[in-house]
Specification:
Blueprint (H helix, E strand, L loop, with lengths): L1 H21 L10 H8 L3 H14 L2 E2 L7 E2 L3 H4 L8 E7 L9 H11 L3 E7 L9 H10 L4 E5 L3 H10 L3 E4 L11 E4 L1 H14 L5 E6 H6 L1 H14 L5 H4 E4 L3 H11 L8 E4 L2 H13 L9 E4 L14 E4 L2 H16 L7 E4 L2 E3 L10
Length: 361
C-alpha cells in the first residue's frame, strides 16, 4: 500500500512539473532537487522519481553533475489539459506490427501525456511503394505535424522526401541522398564489438549468418565486421565469412548443413535476428554440437524470449526506454520545427550469456 501511495505521489509531482513547464513558469532548467522538495513539500526521492518520469518522456535532459535542462521544445509542446496542439501518425510496414508493439505503445503514452494526438496506420501486406492515388488518399486522411515511418521501404521513403513531408524514419537508415532524419541501432559498433569478442576468444573460423532483408539494412556495417576479422586474418574473403541466405528457415538450414559438412567446421557464428538464433542453436544441439565447447554463438538482437533459451545466448539488447526517449525527443523537435540531425543512433548493451567460449584446440 505504501509503495502504491509513493508511486501516486511521484506521478502527481511529475504532473505538477509538467504543467509548470507547459505554462512557462519554469524555463531552461529545473531548480535543484532539494529546493523542489521543499517547495512541493515532498521527499527528495519522490522528486527524483518525478524527474525520471519526465526524462523518459523526453521533456528533460538529465546528466549527472549538471542542472536538469528543460528541452527547448518542451515548453512549446505542453498545453493545458484537454487542448491538443499537435498530431503524430505512425505508419507501420510489414513485418513491423506497430499497434501490438510495446515500444510504440510507450511512445504513444509519452506523447499523449503531453496532449499530442497519436494515430496508427498499419499496412497489412508487404509493399514496395504506394501508387499516386494511394499516397494522395493517405495524405488526405491524415494531416499530422509529424509522420513516423516504421520499417519503411525505400520507395515510400522517396515519396515522402519528394513531397517534403515532416517525417522520421524509425528502424533503419534513410536512403543516401534523402534528408529524412532517422533513428536506428548503431550496427557498425555492434558488428565491430562482436568480431572482437570472437577474436579475443581465439576463434579463427567465424561466420556471419544474415538473411537478405536484414543484410539490406546495413551493408556498410557488414563490411565493418569483415574488416575487423581481416585485421587479424588478411586472407579471408567476404564470401568465406558472410553467409547470406534468402531469409527463410529452409535456406538457413541448407547454409548450416553446408558449413558443417566438411572436416574444417566453423567455431563461431554471429547470427542476425532472434528467431534465426533460436533455429541455429536448436539445429546445432540436435546435431550433437556442444555450445560453446565446440561452437560459440552471438546473436545480433534480443527480445523477451531469449532469456528462456538454454544455454542463454550472448547477445546485444537495446534499452527500450532509451529508444523511446530518443524517438519522443525527435518528434518534439520536428513538430516545433527545430532542426534535427540526419542520423541518430544508440548502442545496445552486450549481454555475455553462456554461448561464447574459447575456441576449441
Amino acid at each position: 500500500m505504501q509503495a502504491h501511495k509513493r508511486l501516486s505521489l511521484i506521478v502527481g509531482v511529475a504532473e505538477t512539473l509538467r504543467k509548470a513547464i507547459g505554462e512557462g513558469e519554469v524555463r531552461d532548467q529545473l531548480p535543484n532537487v532539494r529546493s523542489l522538495s521543499q517547495d512541493l513539500n515532498v521527499s527528495v526521492p519522490t522528486v527524483l522519481g518525478a524527474i525520471k518520469l519526465l526524462d523518459e518522456e523526453g521533456l528533460l535532459e538529465v546528466r549527472q553533475g549538471h542542472p536538469t535542462r528543460i528541452l527547448s521544445s518542451a515548453g512549446n509542446i505542453l498545453t493545458k489539459k484537454g487542448q491538443t496542439s499537435h498530431k503524430v501518425v505512425i505508419l507501420g510496414f510489414p513485418p513491423e506490427r506497430i499497434e501490438s508493439s510495446l515500444y510504440y505503445r510507450e511512445v504513444e503514452d509519452a506523447l499523449r501525456r503531453m496532449d499530442i494526438e497519436v494515430e496508427f496506420h498499419q499496412f497489412e501486406k508487404k509493399i514496395w511503394g504506394l501508387t499516386g492515388r494511394e499516397f494522395d488518399r493517405l495524405l488526405a486522411r491524415y494531416q499530422p505535424d509529424c509522420w513516423v515511418l516504421a520499417n519503411c521501404p525505400p520507395k515510400v521513403q522517396n515519396q515522402f522526401s519528394e513531397k517534403g513531408l515532416p517525417c522520421i524514419l524509425e528502424g533503419g537508415a534513410a536512403l543516401p541522398g534523402l534528408s529524412i532524419p532517422d533513428l536506428e541501432i548503431d550496427f557498425s559498433a555492434v558488428y565491430r564489438h562482436a568480431a572482437h569478442q570472437f577474436l579475443n576468444q581465439g576463434h579463427k573460423r567465424i561466420h556471419f549468418l544474415i538473411g537478405d532483408r536484414s543484410a539490406a539494412k546495413n551493408p556498410q556495417s557488414i563490411e565493418t565486421f569483415l574488416g575487423v576479422i581481416r585485421e587479424r586474418f588478411p586472407e579471408v574473403t567476404r564470401k568465406s565469412v558472410v553467409q547470406e541466405y534468402d531469409g527463410t528457415l529452409a535456406d538457413l538450414r541448407l547454409v548450416l548443413e553446408r558449413l558443417f559438412a566438411g572436416e574444417v567446421k566453423p567455431t563461431g557464428l554471429f547470427v542476425a535476428l532472434v528467431s534465426r538464433m533460436i533455429f541455429t542453436q536448436s539445429w546445432l544441439l540436435s546435431n550433437g554440437y556442444r555450445i560453446p565447447e565446440e561452437v560459440s554463438l552471438i546473436c545480433r538482437d534480443s527480445d523477451e524470449f531469449v532469456d528462456c533459451l538454454v544455454p542463454e545466448p550472448a547477445r546485444y539488447a537495446h534499452s527500450q526506454k532509451l529508444a523511446v526517449r530518443r524517438l519522443v525527443r525527435m518528434i518534439l523537435a520536428m513538430v516545433e520545427h527545430t532542426p534535427l540531425k540526419d542520423h541518430t543512433t544508440f548502442v545496445p548493451e552486450y549481454v555475455p550469456g553462456e554461448t561464447l567460449g574459447r575456441a576449441p584446440e
